[in-house]
Design goal:
Layout lengths: L5 E2 L7 H4 L3 E4 L3 H12 L4 E5 L4 H8 L3 E4 H6 L3 E4 L3 H12 L8 E4 L3 H4 L10 E7 L3 H9 L6 E7 L5 H12 L6 E3 L2 H4 L1
Parallel strand pairs: 2-3, 2-5, 3-4, 5-6, 6-7, 8-9
Antiparallel strand pairs: 1-9, 7-8
Length: 190
């Protein structure tokens, strides 16, 4: 049996994600933690939420630019979908899919919606996963303490031919490579 490789800090180039505009869709447990970790890693993040919701207020208090979901998709290179799995399909169909452009990247923290084909992304985008092995509160606390938590990453679609480097960069920015990440698949994570 082949022992899976553990990817660490030196395996990822933070600059790859730093030059991208990041749109965080959802600002709950994972969304807030990942957005704050990205921000503390020097990445500019826009938060896409439903208008006048509690998340909108909290994101503004945390110092993020806040737009509605569709505007966030239109203005982002990387779109991170961190809304609850049961809501993601409808949010994707109504507010994400109509505004996707060639070469953008969709990031998921769970494989469910892709594996079970709730979301069927177009062929002209990257589809990747960065899945922390823990709650957002743990991800954030460990990041702030200079540590990380382990996680998984996966590539479902590599349109731009740099999806692996990009997902590793993202994993580094949220603190996962501090502890180590393993390559997986959307099916295995699900």
């Amino acid at each position: 049996m082949k022992i899976p490789r553990i990817y660490k800090e030196f395996d990822a180039d933070l600059q790859l994600i730093k030059v991208k505009s990041i749109g965080m869709i959802g600002f709950g447990n994972q969304g807030r933690a990942q957005a704050l970790n990205l921000k503390d890693s020097g990445i500019d993040v826009c938060v896409g939420v439903r208008k006048n919701g509690v998340s909108s207020i909290k994101a503004k208090e945390d110092g993020f630019k806040v737009l509605d979901i569709s505007e966030t998709v239109k203005t982002s290179d990387v779109i991170v979908l961190l809304v609850p799995d049961q809501d993601m399909g409808a949010i994707y169909e109504n507010f994400v899919k109509p505004y996707l452009k060639s070469g953008q990247t969709l990031v998921f923290a769970h494989g469910y919606n892709i594996h079970y084909e709730v979301i069927d992304p177009p062929m002209y985008v990257n589809v990747i996963m960065a899945a922390p092995s823990g709650a957002g509160t743990e991800l954030r606390r460990n990041y702030e303490d200079g540590r990380g938590i382990p996680g998984l990453f996966a590539i479902y679609q590599d349109f731009t031919k740099d999806a692996k480097d990009l997902v590793l960069s993202y994993c580094k920015a949220i603190g996962l490579t501090r502890m180590g990440v393993f390559e997986s698949t959307f099916k295995e994570e699900t």
